[in-house]
Amino acid sequence: MQAKAKTFTESARRAQIVAAAIETIAELGYTRASFARIAKQAKLSSTGLISYHFANKEELVRTVLEDVFREIGAFMAERMSEPASASEALRTYLEANLEFAAAQPTRMRALLNIFLGGALDYDPANERAALEPVERILRWGQESGEFREFDVHVMATTIRRSVEGPVFLLAGTPEPDLTAYAAELVTLFDLATRRQ
Amino acid sequence: MQAKAKTFTESARRAQIVAAAIETIAELGYTRASFARIAKQAKLSSTGLISYHFANKEELVRTVLEDVFREIGAFMAERMSEPASASEALRTYLEANLEFAAAQPTRMRALLNIFLGGALDYDPANERAALEPVERILRWGQESGEFREFDVHVMATTIRRSVEGPVFLLAGTPEPDLTAYAAELVTLFDLATRRQ
Amino acid sequence: MQAKAKTFTESARRAQIVAAAIETIAELGYTRASFARIAKQAKLSSTGLISYHFANKEELVRTVLEDVFREIGAFMAERMSEPASASEALRTYLEANLEFAAAQPTRMRALLNIFLGGALDYDPANERAALEPVERILRWGQESGEFREFDVHVMATTIRRSVEGPVFLLAGTPEPDLTAYAAELVTLFDLATRRQ
Amino acid sequence: MQAKAKTFTESARRAQIVAAAIETIAELGYTRASFARIAKQAKLSSTGLISYHFANKEELVRTVLEDVFREIGAFMAERMSEPASASEALRTYLEANLEFAAAQPTRMRALLNIFLGGALDYDPANERAALEPVERILRWGQESGEFREFDVHVMATTIRRSVEGPVFLLAGTPEPDLTAYAAELVTLFDLATRRQ
DNA sequence: TATGAATGAGCCTTCATTCAT
DNA sequence: GATGAATGAAGGCTCATTCAT
């Protein structure tokens, strides 16, 4: 009944399973990431153990998402602390996103594979959650006069998708220059947002 | 090269199956669009009938893609004929894409679900094919002096993804204002690309 | 209703289908010789045509057997005409069988694949029919005093199977020396049968 | 090389499935021995259970073969220990083969149905393995002077097929006299092989 | 006669999940 | 907590056969 308190062992097992799920989903895509394959990746002896720790596949996937989002959140929080201006915040947002993709390509691929692989019935809440920090920056810039008038939702959607773009590059190219990519995006959206 | 001539009946059946597949893939995603569900959608008596008309699932999906691409191609060709300048071409490209998404939301969703849903092992060639028309416009603009210097690939990727953005909105919202959305994108990328 | 009289066209079609079936069964084995593959081999446009000419697969297979048996029978009849003695008849029987296998390897393989491939519920009548000519020779030899006393059925079975032995060699080896093989068998069964 | 250690339960299940497969293959032939029928014979709830214990049908069949070969090997090893001469070895070989067929007719039929039923793409290695013990006896006899000169391969093939001959009889006849059959074969091949 | 189309049963396999131990 | 075992639904696909034209 009690929903929260987990023993240490249980937490460790769940973490191990989640890590294996991320690895597997990143490598094979969501569809092919069956319990059998995740268990093998985690060197678990039975898929039953996954079912034991997670009510069903959906809960496992949800946990994977939470885990990845928490990491991204922590990473972003560190970079984004106390920006002096909205345009600086936007620049940092773009750079930090691509840095994270470069640093954690597996997590990033898993994330995309989940969203793209039909894992979840499309849930607008997820998109709203991802968009919200960007929209906050954009509104800040418009209020401060740094940014021109534009539809915040459209701009935020475009920005969000722009940073997802290079993730797939990471599979093929060994060392794609994400720093340069980030610089291009920074310029692009600086021009697109700033008051003329 | 030349495919065997199809009889009228066969063409009709194939078209019916393809239509049902589009509907089903758009609604459920690629993974859950099983032959059984497609057959039910098409009111067929047996999944065997799908196998009778298509060698395997891959061929069916490929046919779906061809069908959608042909429609998009025809639609775009009509809009894009004889643009006077690169910036006009870019504007038209953005507008036409969103118009098509508004006119054929189901086809558009199916398309994305196939590409994003792990239906195909990720093939850079597909992405290159989608990017190529955009990159041509961008290079034209740079050569003509209309556009500033920027990395064509990054800009093209960002543009391409920006027009995919609103597709999923179409499921929830009955009449999203894609005209306004297009106008925002046009301004956004005009500012981002033009020589200052 | 009328069981026998076939039109010319029908006979030709049936012959064409039977020939294709032999080819296909010889190449792929009975199990994989589906109507679809036989139709392709015969360049027929529809498997329905096979069903039109043959009540079911069993009838087709039975017809194949009759066809092959008729050929073997004709071939053997020519060789075996008027043997001077039982031992000469036996020698000729062995030689003629291997000659036929060398001359018609496809028919021979098809024959074996049918018997071995579970095509027919095992029917002792087939075996009896194959054994009967051999047993006749053997009884002749015993009655004439050329052959010693032995169990005719055992000897006939052994002889029959001995000539089936080399058929599979024909697949792998381009030019197996069936003449030498026949000579060995002739000596073998001469020693095994003759009065000491 | 070393297969993963099986638990007792798993071994028992596998044995049960193998037994059911033997029964089914012997009765219906390889082709008609589907997982569904084997499962029914074994009173299993689902064909999935067979797939759970065996990677695929090929592995099941391979296991059946190993099982039958192990039994035959043990049976033969006992009979064939320390023959005094090649001709005694040959006699024992013939007798032991027919005894085994009499004692284990189901296993024997299954074996033949697998080899003859197109279960395996025809593999000369299998035939060589079956022939090898016979050829060893024959070479021994030729070297010791007991046997006349003859082509060892032809003789071995004929002997091998001669002992397979009566296996199918076992289905129809309740108590075929395989002892008498063996005696006939012993005489036959004694005459055929011995130095005159 | 011949054709293309359709049918529905059956094939092997994979899957998430459950359960006794 | 963890394991191996079992379940039954569902997957894509092939098959022999039937039928309207």
Short précis:
The structure is a homotetramer of 196-residue chains. Chain A has 196 residues and is mainly alpha-helical.
Describe it:
- The structure is a homotetramer of 196-residue chains.
- With 196 residues, chain A is mainly α.
- The first copy, chain A, has ten helices and no strands.
- Chain A binds chain B through residues 29-32, 113, 115-118, 122, 124, 127, 150-151, 154-155, 157-158, 161-162, 164-166, 168, 171-172, 180-181, 184-185, 187-189, 191-192, 196, and chain B through 28-32, 113, 116-118, 122, 124, 127, 150-151, 154-155, 157-158, 161-162, 164-166, 168, 171-172, 180-181, 184-185, 187-189, 191-192, 196.
- The structure holds a DNA duplex (21 and 21 nucleotides).
List the helices and strands and how they pair.
Four copies of one chain form a homotetramer.
Chain A: H1 8-28, H2 35-41, H3 48-53, H4 57-79, H5 86-103, H6 105-116, H7 124-144, H8 152-164, H9 169-172, H10 178-193
Helix pairs in contact in A: 1-2, 1-4, 1-6, 4-5, 4-6, 5-6, 5-7, 5-10, 7-8, 8-10
The structure holds a DNA duplex (21 and 21 nucleotides).
